[in-house]
Specification:
Blueprint: H1 2-103, H2 115-182, E1 198-201, E2 206-209, H3 220-228
Antiparallel strand pairs: 1-2
GO biological process, one term: regulation of transcription by RNA polymerase II
Domain NF-kappa-B essential modulator NEMO CC2-LZ: 79-173
Protein name: TNFAIP3 interacting protein 3
Length: 238
């Protein structure tokens, strides 16, 4: 009878050792998985910071281009006003030249025109040519400024599209990072062992307790009490 008890006790201890090994393997697996999750969290935070830096750089470049565009518009408006003033001055000089030519009496044959009239007409023609050249220069500058403004507008639109795309990616990354940071740890356990929390051999007069890997470990004091009453032999027959 004692040999039977010892055999049964050995089997139960073997099952208990197997359960303890399973629990130990699960703990090791959980510790192996934890650094991997931490690495992904760090990578997510680093990528989020990089996206924020890229967005800040693009926002600053966009602000500078807007400021440059504003200055070009001011310069363009100033040049447009000057062009209008020069055109008005050219019209006035043309009218004055025409009036002077109309007021001039036709010279008598063989008589040279008056010296004062000739100098006045030549002076007006010179002023007219100078003004025409200035208007031409301002027209060229005006066309160049308009071309630069159109180029800046195209670059600004491209930067705005890139900025919107980065803002969308930044929002998605922020959401994913928050979900990753608040996600609880879920260690993967193997299929539960179909063992009762307590193997009872009441017919043999023996009750053996062993820990279940699916439940939390009991305190040390309760575990000692459990070990003291784990094996009960019946009284020896008289």
């Amino acid at each position: 009878m004692k040999q039977l008890y010892e055999k049964q006790l050995t089997e139960v201890k073997a099952k208990l050792d197997m359960s303890e090994r399973k629990v130990s393997e699960l703990e090791q697996e959980r510790h192996r998985q934890h650094p991997e999750e931490e690495r992904w969290r760090v990578l997510g935070r680093e990528r989020l910071l990089q996206e924020k830096k890229d967005t800040e750089v693009l926002s600053e470049a966009l602000h500078e281009m807007k400021e440059e565009n504003r200055l070009l518009k001011q310069k363009n408006a100033s040049m447009s006003r000057k062009k209008e003033q020069y055109e008005s001055e050219i019209s006035r000089l043309n009218k004055a030249l025409l009036d002077a030519l109309q007021k001039q009496h036709p010279p008598v044959v063989g008589t040279p025109p008056e010296k004062g009239d000739r100098s006045s007409i030549e002076e007006m023609r010179t002023q007219l040519e100078v003004l025409k050249q200035q208007v031409q220069i301002y027209e060229e500058d005006f066309r160049k400024e308009r071309s630069d403004r159109e180029r800046l507008n195209e670059e600004k639109e491209a930067l705005q599209k890139i900025n919107e795309r980065l803002q969308s990616q930044l929002s998605k990354l922020s959401s994913q990072t928050k979900d990753l940071l608040v996600q609880p740890e879920r260690p993967s356990y193997p299929a539960p062992l179909f063992l009762s929390p307590c193997v009872s051999y009441e017919g043999c007069g023996m009750v053996v307790h062993y820990p279940d890997p699916r439940v939390h470990p009991v305190p040390r004091r309760a575990q000692k009490q459990q070990e003291q009453c784990s094996v009960r032999f019946p009284p020896s027959p008289v």
